[in-house]
């Protein structure tokens, strides 16, 4: 079993955001995504990734493309929140969402100031790394243990995933 966390770079490819995607990468990523879903893999997307992705949509010059992509994102988010499909949006606990998000923000900002800013790692990537590590701890309690991967086009971020993926696409 494999659990993946999607980075903004993969969403840009999946949604074919104008000026932000490569047709060959889109084909490869959507094929991998279809195989992952067919294999009963889980797909996680942290809230900061959704915000960052929406910013890319908002920056598009073409208003029609902005509208269509925003509507598609809205439908995906709605479906994900209602049925956990196609994504499981992180954080998990809706009742504790505000506490979880504010606690994570405080932790992420501290890590950013103390460690990651010097390395050039931003808050969204910190949220991804944290989510991957939390999922890895959850996976360790599963039998069989699930592998946890970050699907990203960012080589430095990919290197921080908990389990090394064979034949990654970055």
Q: How many structural domains?
A: 1
Secondary structure category: alpha/beta
Helix content: 55-70%
What do we call the CATH topology?
Rossmann fold
Number of strands: 4
Q: Biggest sheet, strands in spatial order?
A: 3-2-1-4
> What kind of sheet is the major sheet?
4 strands, parallel
Outline: globular
Q: Report the end-to-end length measured between terminal Cα atoms.
A: 21 Å
Mean model confidence by pLDDT? 91
Describe the protein's architecture and organization.
This protein has helices spanning 8-14, 23-38, 47-58, 63-83, 97-119, 123-140, 155-158, and strands spanning 2-6, 42-46, 88-90, 147-151. The protein has 170 residues and is of the alpha/beta class. Strands 3-2-1-4 form a four-stranded parallel beta sheet. The chain starts with a strand and ends in a 12-residue tail after the last helix.
């Amino acid at each position: 079993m494999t659990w993946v966390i999607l980075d903004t770079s993969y969403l840009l490819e999946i949604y074919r955001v104008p000026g932000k995607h490569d047709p060959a990468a889109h084909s490869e990523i959507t094929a991998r995504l279809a195989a992952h879903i067919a294999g009963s893999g889980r797909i996680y997307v942290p809230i900061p990734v959704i915000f960052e992705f929406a910013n890319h949509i908002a920056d598009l010059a073409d208003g029609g493309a902005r509208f269509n992509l925003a509507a598609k994102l809205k439908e995906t988010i709605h479906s994900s929140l209602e049925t956990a499909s196609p994504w499981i949006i992180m954080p998990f606990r809706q009742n504790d969402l505000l506490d979880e998000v504010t606690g994570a923000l405080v932790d992420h900002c501290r890590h950013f100031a103390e460690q990651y800013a010097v390395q050039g790692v931003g808050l969204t990537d910190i949220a991804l790394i944290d989510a991957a590590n939390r999922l890895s701890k959850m996976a360790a309690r599963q039998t069989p243990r699930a592998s946890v991967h970050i699907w990203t086009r960012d080589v430095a971020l990919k290197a921080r995933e908990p389990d090394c993926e064979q034949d990654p696409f970055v």
